[in-house]
Automatic annotation (TrEMBL):
Name of the protein in its database record: Nucleoside-binding protein
Organism: Humidesulfovibrio mexicanus
InterPro entries noted in UniProt: ABC-Purine-Binding (IPR052910), PnrA-like (IPR003760)
Domain ABC transporter substrate-binding protein PnrA-like: 43-319
Lineage: superkingdom: Bacteria
């Protein structure tokens, strides 16, 4: 997730089994020349920026942690509702001192604290989610959730009646902007004149505020509400008004069964299992940026609501099949920005560095990048 943070809350440690990477845990010792395969029980830590709860971002990571536990041979612990800065550094350092073989920090705002701790504990393996900094014993990882965003945008574009869709956005950072753009491209691929109106909350998890933001969009005529945050507040607002919604992070249909069309969802298990296998084999390496997509099963969409017609489902699933085959043409030009200027020329596919640094909105988005 991201630089600022989501919500503070309870501290929770849970033991079980887990995941990935390479090398031995040690306390501020010199790094070994080479890693050896690990034969004993792995000890893996997870740091979450929000409560695990029953749905959302931290919940999705925790489902993968539990899946790893089920395989045996791994003991895991997690700490939830961790704030950026000193709080994150303290939690990560405690895990490093506690003999953990690998630590996963799952928020963008944990990047610099993890870099600092990684420098002091060279024998511990560190994995940071959604960032861009790396070192000899730290890599970063994320998923191409924009692919799922595009598919949910298609769904919203088919289902809107008035052609005005609302988007409750978290923070104006590239990850969120990229998701809004992919969603809008999906909307306009099937409904060329539709608009996506954006309201910023600058939160990751604040159910009341996020619900209020959705209400403000419904008040100006939006009939489908999408979101980037963890809470189901926007879903509930849409249902209360008799409108449709698009969830995020996990299947949120239980919170708004009459509104929820589908959701862009995470499945971290394949990536975490791969890291665990590398760790056991002594093949984990730092200085990497892993960005896995639908072809590797890390991102997906939730089951469609009963209100989505079969012909709509079929069209969306046909596009999903392309992405599963590795045929990603979402950010292939011509793509214009809000001012009508061509940002990605015809036939050109945006490079990953452009996507990772995206700070502009595509044509069709109503709102400012701020």
């Amino acid at each position: 997730m991201k630089n600022w943070l989501r919500t503070a809350g309870a501290l929770a440690l849970t033991l079980t089994l887990a995941l990935a990477g390479c090398d031995n845990a040690s306390d501020k010792a010199a790094a070994p020349a080479a890693d050896a395969p690990k034969t004993g029980e792995l000890k893996i830590g997870f740091v979450y920026p929000s409560p695990v709860g029953d749905a959302g971002y931290a919940w999705a990571h925790d489902q993968a942690r539990k899946a790893l536990e089920a395989k045996g041979g791994v003991k895991t612990a997690f700490v939830e509702s961790v704030k950026d800065g000193a709080d994150a550094e303290r939690v990560i350092e405690n895990m490093a001192r506690g003999g953990y073989d690998m630590v996963f920090a799952t928020s963008f705002g944990f990047m610099d604290p993890m870099m600092k701790v990684a420098k002091d504990f060279p024998n511990v393996k560190f994995m940071h989610c959604s960032g861009f900094k790396a070192s000899a014993n730290m890599s970063n990882y994320f998923g191409r959730i924009y692919q799922a965003r595009y598919l949910t945008g298609m769904t919203a574009g088919f289902m809107t009646k008035g052609g005005v869709i609302g988007y409750v956005a978290a923070f104006p950072i590239p990850e969120v902007i990229r998701g809004i753009n992919a969603f809008t491209l999906g909307v306009r691929s099937v409904n060329p004149k539709a608009q996506v109106r954006v309201v910023w909350t600058k939160t990751w998890f604040d159910p009341a505020l996020e619900k209020d933001a959705a209400v403000s969009l419904l008040d100006v005529g939006c009939d489908v509400i999408a979101q980037h945050q963890d809470s189901p507040g926007p879903q509930e607002a849409a249902q209360e008004r008799g409108k449709y919604s698009i969830g995020y992070n996990s299947d949120m249909s239980a919170f708004a069964p009459k509104a929820h069309l589908t959701a862009a969802v995470w499945n971290w298990t394949p990536l975490y299992e791969a890291m665990m296998q590398e760790l056991r084999a002594g093949k984990w390496t730092g200085e990497r940026s892993l960005w896995w997509g639908m072809d590797k099963g890390v991102v997906d969409i939730a089951p469609f609501g009963a209100m989505v017609p079969k012909d709509v489902q079929d069209k969306v699933l046909a596009k999903k099949a392309e992405l599963v085959r590795g045929e990603d043409t979402i950010f292939v030009g011509p793509i214009k920005d809000q001012a009508g200027q061509v940002k990605i020329p015809a036939g050109v596919k945006a490079e990953d560095k452009e996507l990772l640094g995206m700070t502009w909105f595509v044509e069709g988005v109503v709102g400012s990048v701020q």
